[in-house]
Amino acid sequence: MLTMESSWPAYIRPEPLLVDWAFERHAAHQLVLLDADDRVIARAAAVPFAWDGSPGSLPDTGWDEVLRRSLTDTKAGRAARALCALEIAVVPGRQARDLSSYTLRALLDHARAAGFTDLVGPVRPSAKHRRPELTLAEYVALRRPDGLPEDPWLRVHTRVGGEVLQVCPASMTISGSLAQWREWTGLPLDTDGPVEVPGALTPVTVNVAHDHAVYVEPNVWVRHRLTPPRP
After folding, report:
1. Which residue spans within 91-154 are E strands per DSSP?
2. Residue 135 burial by CB count (10 A; 0-12/13-18/19+): exposed, middle or buried?
3. What angle do CA 172, 167, 147 make, to 5 degrees?
Protein backbone atom coordinates (compact mmCIF):
# COMPACT_ATOMS: atom_id res chain seq x y z
CA MET A 1 0.00 0.00 0.00
CA LEU A 2 2.92 2.35 0.62
CA THR A 3 4.34 1.69 -2.82
CA MET A 4 4.41 4.67 -5.16
CA GLU A 5 6.71 6.30 -7.66
CA SER A 6 9.53 7.92 -5.73
CA SER A 7 10.96 11.40 -6.15
CA TRP A 8 14.07 10.51 -4.11
CA PRO A 9 17.42 10.40 -5.94
CA ALA A 10 18.54 6.86 -6.76
CA TYR A 11 21.44 7.05 -4.30
CA ILE A 12 19.20 7.68 -1.28
CA ARG A 13 19.17 4.12 -0.02
CA PRO A 14 18.25 3.72 3.67
CA GLU A 15 18.98 0.40 5.37
CA PRO A 16 16.16 -1.81 4.02
CA LEU A 17 15.95 -4.18 7.00
CA LEU A 18 15.44 -1.32 9.45
CA VAL A 19 12.96 0.44 7.19
CA ASP A 20 10.94 -2.73 6.59
CA TRP A 21 10.91 -3.49 10.32
CA ALA A 22 9.78 0.04 11.18
CA PHE A 23 6.99 0.12 8.63
CA GLU A 24 5.69 -3.33 9.61
CA ARG A 25 6.01 -2.90 13.39
CA HIS A 26 4.50 0.59 13.36
CA ALA A 27 2.09 0.21 10.47
CA ALA A 28 -0.47 2.39 12.27
CA HIS A 29 1.79 5.43 11.73
CA GLN A 30 2.20 4.98 7.97
CA LEU A 31 -0.34 7.10 6.08
CA VAL A 32 -1.20 7.15 2.39
CA LEU A 33 -3.25 9.49 0.24
CA LEU A 34 -5.16 7.83 -2.61
CA ASP A 35 -6.61 9.32 -5.76
CA ALA A 36 -9.99 8.44 -7.24
CA ASP A 37 -8.51 5.29 -8.78
CA ASP A 38 -7.04 4.10 -5.45
CA ARG A 39 -3.48 4.89 -6.52
CA VAL A 40 -1.08 6.17 -3.88
CA ILE A 41 -0.22 9.78 -4.67
CA ALA A 42 1.34 10.80 -1.35
CA ARG A 43 2.52 9.11 1.82
CA ALA A 44 3.79 9.86 5.30
CA ALA A 45 6.01 7.43 7.16
CA ALA A 46 6.71 7.83 10.87
CA VAL A 47 7.99 5.91 13.89
CA PRO A 48 7.66 6.55 17.64
CA PHE A 49 10.71 7.04 19.84
CA ALA A 50 11.41 7.90 23.47
CA TRP A 51 12.50 11.53 23.22
CA ASP A 52 12.81 13.64 26.38
CA GLY A 53 11.62 16.83 24.67
CA SER A 54 15.00 18.59 24.76
CA PRO A 55 16.21 19.80 21.34
CA GLY A 56 19.78 19.11 22.44
CA SER A 57 19.06 15.40 22.74
CA LEU A 58 17.91 15.03 19.13
CA PRO A 59 20.65 13.06 17.37
CA ASP A 60 23.09 14.67 14.94
CA THR A 61 22.77 11.45 12.93
CA GLY A 62 19.05 12.18 12.54
CA TRP A 63 17.34 9.79 10.11
CA ASP A 64 19.65 6.82 10.69
CA GLU A 65 19.72 7.18 14.47
CA VAL A 66 15.96 7.67 14.95
CA LEU A 67 15.32 4.37 13.18
CA ARG A 68 17.77 2.63 15.53
CA ARG A 69 16.31 4.35 18.60
CA SER A 70 12.79 3.41 17.59
CA LEU A 71 13.84 -0.22 17.29
CA THR A 72 15.60 -0.32 20.67
CA ASP A 73 12.84 1.67 22.40
CA THR A 74 10.21 -0.65 21.01
CA LYS A 75 12.13 -3.78 22.01
CA ALA A 76 12.70 -2.39 25.52
CA GLY A 77 9.09 -1.33 25.93
CA ARG A 78 9.98 2.30 26.60
CA ALA A 79 7.14 4.79 26.39
CA ALA A 80 7.43 7.00 23.31
CA ARG A 81 6.27 10.58 23.72
CA ALA A 82 7.25 11.70 20.21
CA LEU A 83 6.50 10.59 16.69
CA CYS A 84 9.27 11.12 14.14
CA ALA A 85 8.39 11.76 10.50
CA LEU A 86 10.86 9.83 8.36
CA GLU A 87 9.28 10.78 5.05
CA ILE A 88 6.50 12.91 3.64
CA ALA A 89 6.50 12.45 -0.11
CA VAL A 90 4.34 13.17 -3.14
CA VAL A 91 4.54 11.36 -6.47
CA PRO A 92 6.49 13.28 -9.12
CA GLY A 93 4.32 15.68 -11.08
CA ARG A 94 1.87 16.33 -8.25
CA GLN A 95 4.05 18.46 -5.95
CA ALA A 96 2.44 21.72 -7.10
CA ARG A 97 -1.03 20.73 -5.82
CA ASP A 98 -0.37 21.39 -2.11
CA LEU A 99 -0.44 17.65 -1.40
CA SER A 100 2.71 17.86 0.72
CA SER A 101 1.05 20.35 3.06
CA TYR A 102 -2.14 18.29 3.17
CA THR A 103 -0.16 15.11 3.99
CA LEU A 104 1.84 16.87 6.69
CA ARG A 105 -1.34 18.17 8.30
CA ALA A 106 -2.85 14.67 8.16
CA LEU A 107 0.21 13.27 9.96
CA LEU A 108 -0.03 16.02 12.59
CA ASP A 109 -3.70 15.19 13.17
CA HIS A 110 -2.85 11.50 13.42
CA ALA A 111 -0.01 12.08 15.90
CA ARG A 112 -2.20 14.34 18.05
CA ALA A 113 -5.05 11.81 18.08
CA ALA A 114 -2.61 9.04 19.01
CA GLY A 115 -1.54 10.97 22.12
CA PHE A 116 1.96 12.04 21.12
CA THR A 117 3.22 15.32 22.56
CA ASP A 118 5.45 16.17 19.59
CA LEU A 119 5.98 15.41 15.95
CA VAL A 120 9.59 15.93 14.96
CA GLY A 121 11.45 15.20 11.78
CA PRO A 122 14.89 15.35 10.17
CA VAL A 123 13.62 17.41 7.26
CA ARG A 124 15.30 17.38 3.84
CA PRO A 125 15.11 20.95 2.49
CA SER A 126 13.64 20.66 -0.98
CA ALA A 127 15.70 23.35 -2.74
CA LYS A 128 19.08 23.12 -0.98
CA HIS A 129 20.59 21.28 -3.95
CA ARG A 130 20.22 24.51 -5.95
CA ARG A 131 22.59 26.31 -3.56
CA PRO A 132 25.58 23.94 -3.27
CA GLU A 133 27.92 26.78 -2.31
CA LEU A 134 26.13 27.28 1.02
CA THR A 135 26.44 25.15 4.13
CA LEU A 136 23.11 23.83 5.31
CA ALA A 137 23.20 26.17 8.32
CA GLU A 138 23.70 29.15 6.00
CA TYR A 139 20.91 27.96 3.73
CA VAL A 140 18.47 27.41 6.61
CA ALA A 141 19.11 30.97 7.80
CA LEU A 142 17.86 32.43 4.49
CA ARG A 143 14.54 34.21 4.90
CA ARG A 144 12.03 35.83 2.58
CA PRO A 145 10.85 39.42 3.19
CA ASP A 146 7.84 38.03 5.09
CA GLY A 147 10.19 36.26 7.52
CA LEU A 148 9.39 32.74 6.36
CA PRO A 149 12.18 30.35 5.31
CA GLU A 150 13.36 30.64 1.74
CA ASP A 151 13.23 26.87 1.35
CA PRO A 152 9.76 25.75 0.16
CA TRP A 153 9.52 22.60 2.30
CA LEU A 154 10.72 24.32 5.47
CA ARG A 155 8.19 27.04 4.70
CA VAL A 156 5.38 24.46 4.59
CA HIS A 157 6.40 23.19 8.02
CA THR A 158 6.64 26.71 9.44
CA ARG A 159 3.22 27.71 8.16
CA VAL A 160 1.55 24.90 10.11
CA GLY A 161 3.40 25.74 13.32
CA GLY A 162 6.70 23.91 12.90
CA GLU A 163 9.79 25.22 14.69
CA VAL A 164 13.14 24.90 12.93
CA LEU A 165 15.52 23.72 15.65
CA GLN A 166 18.96 22.87 14.28
CA VAL A 167 20.90 21.09 11.59
CA CYS A 168 21.57 17.38 12.03
CA PRO A 169 24.84 17.23 10.09
CA ALA A 170 25.01 13.49 9.41
CA SER A 171 21.38 12.47 9.13
CA MET A 172 21.91 9.74 6.55
CA THR A 173 25.15 8.13 5.36
CA ILE A 174 25.23 6.27 2.06
CA SER A 175 28.32 4.48 0.79
CA GLY A 176 28.92 2.36 -2.25
CA SER A 177 31.44 1.23 -4.81
CA LEU A 178 32.29 3.59 -7.65
CA ALA A 179 30.41 1.26 -10.01
CA GLN A 180 27.30 1.67 -7.88
CA TRP A 181 27.66 5.44 -7.72
CA ARG A 182 28.19 5.63 -11.48
CA GLU A 183 24.99 3.66 -11.98
CA TRP A 184 23.07 5.89 -9.55
CA THR A 185 24.34 9.20 -10.92
CA GLY A 186 25.60 8.66 -14.48
CA LEU A 187 28.81 10.51 -13.54
CA PRO A 188 32.36 9.24 -14.24
CA LEU A 189 33.57 9.74 -10.64
CA ASP A 190 37.17 9.12 -11.66
CA THR A 191 38.85 11.82 -9.54
CA ASP A 192 39.49 11.85 -5.82
CA GLY A 193 37.72 14.37 -3.65
CA PRO A 194 34.32 16.04 -3.36
CA VAL A 195 31.99 15.84 -6.34
CA GLU A 196 28.73 17.73 -6.76
CA VAL A 197 25.98 15.26 -7.59
CA PRO A 198 22.53 16.27 -8.91
CA GLY A 199 20.00 16.43 -6.10
CA ALA A 200 22.56 16.02 -3.32
CA LEU A 201 22.64 18.53 -0.47
CA THR A 202 26.41 18.22 -0.03
CA PRO A 203 29.21 16.86 -2.23
CA VAL A 204 29.89 13.13 -2.50
CA THR A 205 33.44 12.19 -1.45
CA VAL A 206 35.18 9.94 -3.98
CA ASN A 207 38.19 7.70 -3.25
CA VAL A 208 39.41 6.16 -6.50
CA ALA A 209 42.21 4.07 -4.96
CA HIS A 210 39.79 2.37 -2.58
CA ASP A 211 36.99 2.19 -5.16
CA HIS A 212 34.25 3.79 -3.09
CA ALA A 213 32.33 7.02 -2.55
CA VAL A 214 30.45 8.27 0.49
CA TYR A 215 27.59 10.71 0.80
CA VAL A 216 26.73 12.18 4.19
CA GLU A 217 23.43 14.02 4.00
CA PRO A 218 22.57 16.75 6.50
CA ASN A 219 18.96 17.44 7.41
CA VAL A 220 17.16 19.97 9.60
CA TRP A 221 15.38 19.06 12.82
CA VAL A 222 11.88 20.54 12.85
CA ARG A 223 9.52 20.28 15.81
CA HIS A 224 5.73 20.48 15.90
CA ARG A 225 4.36 20.74 19.43
CA LEU A 226 1.10 18.84 19.75
CA THR A 227 0.43 19.89 23.33
CA PRO A 228 1.16 23.27 24.98
CA PRO A 229 4.69 23.54 26.44
CA ARG A 230 4.99 23.19 30.22
CA PRO A 231 5.21 26.51 32.13
Report:
1. 118-123
2. middle
3. 135
Query: Of 133, 126, 127, 124, nearest to 203 (Cα)?
Result: 133
Domain 16-171+218-225: which CATH number of 3.40.50.300, 3.40.630.30, 3.40.720.10, 1.10.510.10: 3.40.630.30
Rg of the chain (C-alpha set): 18
Q: Judging by DSSP bridges, how do beta strands 163-177 and 212-225 pair with one another?
A: antiparallel
- Provide the residue-wise pLDDT of the chain in tens; the chain has 231 residues: 456 676 778 888 766 666 777 878 899 999 999 888 888 889 899 999 999 999 999 999 999 999 999 999 999 999 999 999 999 989 887 665 689 999 999 999 999 999 999 999 999 999 999 998 899 999 999 999 999 999 999 999 999 999 999 999 999 999 999 999 999 999 999 999 999 999 999 999 999 999 999 999 999 999 999 986 555
CA distance 33 to 91: 10
pTM over 0.85: yes
